[in-house]
Amino acid sequence: AIGAKEKSLKRKIMSTPIVIDNPKLQRFELAVGHNVAIASYTLDQDNKIVSITQVVTPEALRGQGIAGKLMEGVVQIVRAREQKIIPICPYAVSWLKKHKEHQDLVL
User: What number of helices (H) and strands (E) belong to the chain?
Assistant: First the structure.
């Protein structure tokens, strides 16, 4: 039988939103409930530079730090793929300036 502690942990893991790359639509996605925050991008021809063109958070998710969680997931994916970021969207520019630990990824 699963104890209360394990159930609580399982619930937390299942409710933790995960950023995924949707290359077909050229966007990173963070689904929360029935809403999806997105960071649209373009890639250079060598797939080494990710230009973040737009970050959009649905009205229902605003004010909850979702766009920041999305950007955190984006930089984790970019770093794992050994890519670099060119922030074009004003939100992406601002977020990356505030998070100095990711400056090594910014072109």
Answer: 3, 5
The fraction of the chain above a pLDDT of 70, given in percent, is 85
Tell me the CA end-to-end span of the chain in Å, nearest whole number. 52
CB-based contacts of 73: which residues, under 8 Å, 6+ apart? 18, 19, 28, 30
Average pLDDT over residues 47-66: 95
Strands of the chain, DSSP E:
19-22, 27-32, 35-43, 49-56, 84-87
In this prediction the pTM is 0.84
Token pair in block for residue 39: 């960071």
The DSSP bridge partners found for residue 36 are 31
2-29: pLDDT as tens digits: 555 555 544 444 456 799 999 999 999 9
Handedness of CA 98, 100, 102, 104 (dihedral sign): positive
